[in-house]
Design brief:
9 helices; alpha+beta; 3 domains; four-stranded mixed sheet; six-stranded mixed sheet; single chain; Nucleoside Triphosphate Pyrophosphohydrolase; binds zinc ion
């Protein structure tokens, strides 16, 4: 925690890891920037979910607003599958918002299971689930009239299916919240057609927030799987990053893993780091969380301290792991040797909080 780390930081205004005073109180420091998928600007209106009469009327009202969701993607203008990996907010990228009649016409056949009630502000907000292909195919089937196979560079105003994980940081707060909820519910419905208790068929209820078993009447609610993700820093204030076998070449990120049954979050942090790198951590502190509905995770961000020790990647899940100083990370990013995680991810936010500023600035300044 010496002053030398500040001198080594290439970003003006770097605030650092945080003084002991900043880390006092409840242990939660507000240094991490706003997380893209944690934003939500429309009231969730849970009371209306169980009002079938109100919901039916709202689904017919021309004033209601509807977005379309399919296979982890949302229909947008100005987006597309190859969203900018540096992900700066772009007011030209937005959800396609339709009235209910236009949404049904676009989606094709729509049954009750297809409607998701997302919330209410001045109007009611819904998503309509467009039948997916089980893959990331982008060519519309029942919606060819609106959604075409995207060209390499789609015209900016042409509707296109855009993966949420690629565009979450680019959307407005309102659109990011609507899209995250729509994708999360859509993924849950897709995977819960049968009752986990008796195996009977289930059907959607409560505006898409419950599935009810047609055999025994059991109610099932949307599930999320907790996963921990951690910025591990050593006594020299270096950050531990790793490369996983499943990732694209040159992608480096923080360690992460699912919480096991019966396991506290802090223990999951210590276990994952030890299992994957052999590094022992202490001083585990919660930072922030955001949903990661691909298909059902809730990412819980932590920071933790480690004794300076050479990481030993497990060789299966991780193929490489090492400590970075800020100067080393800036050089690696600018040289293209390290491709950081996408801007929608909490991993990117954790890295940039430690780094003291956006990695985009490094890339642009050093080019
Ligand atoms: Zn059942």
């Amino acid at each position: 925690m010496g002053g030398s780390r500040i001198l080594s930081c290439p970003i003006p205004g770097f605030a650092g890891w945080g003084s002991p005073a900043e880390l006092a109180g409840d242990g939660i420091r507000s240094g991490v920037r706003e997380l893209p998928l944690a934003r939500f600007a429309v009231g969730r209106a849970a009371v209306q979910r169980t009002d079938d009469v109100w919901l039916a009327a709202a689904r017919e009202a021309p004033s209601s607003q509807v977005v379309l969701v399919r296979d982890g993607s949302v229909l947008t203008t100005g987006g597309g599958p190859g969203a900018d990996p540096w992900g700066q907010p772009d007011p030209d990228v937005a959800l396609v918002v339709l009235d209910p009649g236009a949404a049904v016409a676009t989606a094709g056949t729509v049954n009750d299971d297809a409607w998701l009630f997302l919330g209410h502000d001045d109007v009611a907000w819904f998503a309509v689930r467009v039948p997916g292909t089980g893959a990331a195919a982008l060519v519309g089937s029942s919606s060819d009239a609106l959604v075409h196979a995207p060209p390499e560079e789609p015209p900016h105003d042409e509707p296109v299916w855009t993966p949420l994980r690629a565009v979450g940081a680019v959307l407005s707060a309102r659109d990011a919240g609507l899209a995250t909820t729509a994708v999360a519910l859509d993924q849950w419905h897709t995977r819960n057609l049968c009752c986990p208790r008796c195996g009977g068929r289930t059907s959607s209820a409560a505006g898409g927030w419950v599935r009810v078993c047609q055999v025994d009447g059991a109610e099932h609610y949307p599930r999320t799987d907790p996963a921990v993700i951690m910025a591990v820093v050593d006594d020299d204030d270096r950050l531990l990053l790793a490369h996983a076998a499943a990732w694209p070449e040159r992608r480096w990120s923080t360690l992460a893993g699912f919480v096991e049954a019966g396991e506290p979050l802090e223990a999951a942090v210590r276990r994952e780091v030890a299992e994957e790198t052999g590094v022992v951590v202490t001083d585990v502190q919660y930072v922030a969380s955001q949903p990661w509905p691909f298909p059902a995770s809730l990412m819980l961000g932590f920071r933790a301290r480690a004794q300076a020790a050479e990481p030993h990647p497990d060789g299966t899940e991780l193929t490489d792991a090492r400590w970075f100083t800020r100067t080393e990370l800036a050089a690696a990013v600018s040289a293209g040797d390290v491709v950081p995680p996408g801007p929608t991810s909490i991993a990117r936010a954790l890295i940039e909080e430690w780094f003291g500023g956006p990695l985009l600035a490094v890339r642009d300044r050093l080019r």
